[in-house]
Amino acid sequence: MPEIIRPEKLRATGKLTGKARPLGLSDDDFEQRRPLRGQITKREVRAVSLYSLGLRQDSIVWDIGAGTGSVSVEAALIAHRGRVFAVEKDLDNIGLLERNVERLGKDNIEIVAAEAPAALDSLPDPDSVFIGGSGGNLPDILGLVGQRLKPGGRVVANLAVLERSHEAYHQMQQLGFQTELVMVNAARGKELRDGTVRLESLNPVFVVSGVRPGDPPGDSGE
Amino acid sequence: MPEIIRPEKLRATGKLTGKARPLGLSDDDFEQRRPLRGQITKREVRAVSLYSLGLRQDSIVWDIGAGTGSVSVEAALIAHRGRVFAVEKDLDNIGLLERNVERLGKDNIEIVAAEAPAALDSLPDPDSVFIGGSGGNLPDILGLVGQRLKPGGRVVANLAVLERSHEAYHQMQQLGFQTELVMVNAARGKELRDGTVRLESLNPVFVVSGVRPGDPPGDSGE
Amino acid sequence: MPEIIRPEKLRATGKLTGKARPLGLSDDDFEQRRPLRGQITKREVRAVSLYSLGLRQDSIVWDIGAGTGSVSVEAALIAHRGRVFAVEKDLDNIGLLERNVERLGKDNIEIVAAEAPAALDSLPDPDSVFIGGSGGNLPDILGLVGQRLKPGGRVVANLAVLERSHEAYHQMQQLGFQTELVMVNAARGKELRDGTVRLESLNPVFVVSGVRPGDPPGDSGE
Amino acid sequence: MPEIIRPEKLRATGKLTGKARPLGLSDDDFEQRRPLRGQITKREVRAVSLYSLGLRQDSIVWDIGAGTGSVSVEAALIAHRGRVFAVEKDLDNIGLLERNVERLGKDNIEIVAAEAPAALDSLPDPDSVFIGGSGGNLPDILGLVGQRLKPGGRVVANLAVLERSHEAYHQMQQLGFQTELVMVNAARGKELRDGTVRLESLNPVFVVSGVRPGDPPGDSGE
Q: A187 — contact with chain D (CB < 8 Å)?
């Protein structure tokens, strides 16, 4: 059974006392891995992915391959009465994930230090699943998502590799999900010394998302 | 003084009773103008823009050039304890805006049927301002935003025109804002009859955003 | 055996007498199919594809799926002492291809009204092969190219479909070719009434190209 | 008067004896500046720019800001009976330019080691002008091009900076040129260790081009 780091270990720092921080962090707000810096879900792609997750205030969210935790801490802000599970198999990475969650997150995030899909067995069924990268076993993870995702729930995968992108697309379709693929190809303005602006491209990312048919389990509103 | 359509006129329909709808609507969820269909802020650009607005649960939001209301109804979901003002000068468009807000929005949205910047005088100072298009008087609008935006607040403009994009960028800088420009260049997968997928590009949109320096007015947390 | 329309049938019109036309036609210079207008290899993609073909003045070129002939007439200008074979299976399209070749081409273009790969048996071995679209039998065509392409020769395929793009990439690799994939994602400026410019995207196209190892058959220079 | 390095100094090396090299060099074929490596006109943008130059076999070409010479050596292959002037002000760069021209070029290239627009006075009127970068005096250079470009001739500028791109566009229009702007936004496939392919973006480049109205000076064909 995976170690789950319970929220009581994650005390929000001063930044989170008083007025809640706004949604919309920049990439530099996160502590990132070295020398693998740059593997964070980029702000623009994070925005599209978060938006595609179909979050509600009380959503149960799985963030698989949580990495720096950039998706978890933002999802936790929108799903502020729900629960976010940040699943990360790379134990060298857990300290960084913990620090980002402590500094930028909320107490509705739990870190699961184990490998998906096995790590997911002990978690409650999700309303929204984010898959930050294939990690080699995307088919198995999507297979489990096919069993566990609630009706009306959504899964979003970020993929850089062409082959993985349409494999994920076709697997989501075979699961009966309403499936979409978007390539996000952003470029950021960089100001030169004379004040003019040129564009620096981010690498294209394929955001593949699926919605499980059906109505979400009823409740009494927010 | 502009007509403000108060929330009591905007009764949520059945869709909003029971479980709240999730964040993340598709473009087809909105009633759109004909024959100007296509002028809606596209889903991918809406995601980046919403994320850049720095929304909190209690934010005061101005959505200037609200159009179909696609940004207002989503901002209102994140800022569910705040207030969203959907400002639209095109009176032919107000009916459509009202219908989208009624069907997809929340009761924290107020429609302001008047032209910016004059329309903005009677509104409370904003935490977040979205400008959906230049409409010819972007400099005046940004000038007013420079006076009214709260410390720590953010303004986000969506621009298609090259010249307007860096004009907005430079004006935000002159206002002392921490300014960024991002070109969002997405393409959507389109499935062919044989099940394979090709990409259809959306037009590039420049998302120019600025943050007013300073700490947001303190409060007692969320 | 396919009908080959010999150059003697293709008399250059007045435009081609006197000073030769320059390289670099716009899409509107070509007569295009209706209602399938838009299926022409777009100018920007045509440029990248032509450049990737490794043309010399005396190249033998196969243009497979020649369509409007936009690649053939430009390749023929660069390979002005070589031969260009415009292969097109769609007989309804041949008239249009003929007219474009007559008006914009040179007398070193021959139209082959038949389906590849069978149509290619009677043609001389190529230095450069352009494949304008998969047409369903890309693997067979690439297989034949693997047998017939001269050492040092190049093959370039334009593909819109994700799955076909990396299939072509991997097949070229298996043929022992030095293989590259480029996604071309251009946007064209469109001038508005007030003289400002916004961008209209073309759809992304994957340009997959391979070079057969080895030195081209020696000759005594150009 | 600028030093013009005459072709007799530029003896083609062994590579150019025997069969002429094909059009379509890769970026790695050129010796590049260190540590400024990366400032070469990228292959995909070079392709679009060359194609937009409207080259004929006998064209007079100015390559302003020739840099590594990547455009000059390819233009010289298409305009093999014309003359190409590679104009470069940065004297530290001339050695590199000379070596690339010697190794990859033809004897119809002349290097002009001086700054534009002054450097252009002694050159014959051009059919095609390429401007590889603004270098601060783009308006002056375009002004001179307005006086010297032959009827039917074309000018192509590569620009990274937003402000410069539409300035160039509008200046070409004011010169009475038929003007176009294209943003080229390519991404290259990069093969991972497992053989799959992901995309790495190049930075967007604006290719702004203008055609001077009128027929080119008549001649008796090629």
A: yes
